[in-house]
Amino acid sequence: MRRPARLAVAAVTLGLALSGCTAAGDDDDTGPASPAASATPDQEDAPAEPVAPAEPVDPDEPTSWGPTEGELAEARELVAEMSPEELAGQVIVGRYAGTDPAVPAQLVSDLHLSGVCVTGDNVVDEAQVRATTAAVSAAVADSGRDFPAVIGVDQEGGTVSHLRGIATEFPAFQTAGRAVDGGGRSGKVAVRDAAYTTGLELRDLGFTWVYAPVADVTIGAADPTIGSRSPSTDPRLAAKATAAAVDGFDRSGTVSTTKHYPGHGGATADSHLTLPGLDAPIEELEKRDLMPFRAATKAGAPSVMIGHLDVEALAPGTPSSIAPEVYDHLRDEVGFEGVAITDSLGMGAVAGIPGLAVKALVAGADLLLMPADTRRTHAHVTKAIASGEVSPERIEEAAARVVALQMWQARVAGGLQVPDDISARAAEAAQALEVAAYAAP
Questions:
Q1: Which residues contact 18 (CB under 8 A, 6 or more apart)?
Q2: According to the UniProt record, where is the region Disordered (predicted)?
């Protein structure tokens, strides 16, 4: 399915308020209601109250998370024409086994997936990685979609670097926290440049997404999962480092993913194995865990990853990735408007939950990351869309956000060529980050 021409959307938006650009639930409010529709007998002869005309939507106005209003409107038009199978695929980032580039490409082609996540188990060498990303990109293009595939990788630096030996080795993200600690503007610039060159290097390899930065505020030794992946034990330093990294990735044209909302650093169990509990009151979460996510949102974060956590203050007894209260908090209290992506749905914290992917979508997830069985999950989500278990409004809202974000990625990447010497520049940025960290008091 090809996109309608951008000029058609722009022409409409110049003179009219697009119904597709209204908030969810408001798109049936297409004009002023008839005065008689709600009048009481005593009011029937009363003069109608004047109704101010709707403000026209500027298609070039950027959203708070990247895409323009025109791109978002265009995405809404596109997904409204998708079949249940296409909609289901557009909100799934697939998991696959092995290192043959044809395998993920076939998965994307068969299921209309938005894309795939590449892990260390899928990597052999640089040539094989490039072949994989090219095959997945071609599969999306061959399906008639002229916006890019979601091709993501965990490339945080430090211990979580799935392209080890292929992309530049950056230090763990705790180095970023140390760099902004007393480093002032120079420290933040070093963090931003590290993210910027990471993003460009990933783009050179064919990736469009990176699952970083980690915004979790670690509690130290009692935190078995995040540790040095966290920028700091200090929420203010973590917030500064996270915002600088988001800025760098945005500039590079790579979609970043701020994670793991509402904060995994205070958990004393590993969500890869079991469901960790967070029993801190909301006041403590606000002062510690949520500060970096607010900073990331203000910095223009395009995507936030929802962790698998039992957060007593928000949704006791329910994993946060399938809890509507957590998504509502992210939207209403933090103000995030972009793509909400789950943590991997194949993790131990959520293993065995019936209808896991559908529950995540209904709760408010826009993108489902790495289901344990991609094909089976696609079938379940397709059935839920067709039956109305996932409402048309919810699935189209989710898919439109993903499509609009990929339009943004294509636009920014198209205006910024990756330098031929990007590997050398990335190595310099990694060294500059280390120097800034050690120079800080």
A1: 9, 12, 57, 73
A2: 20-68
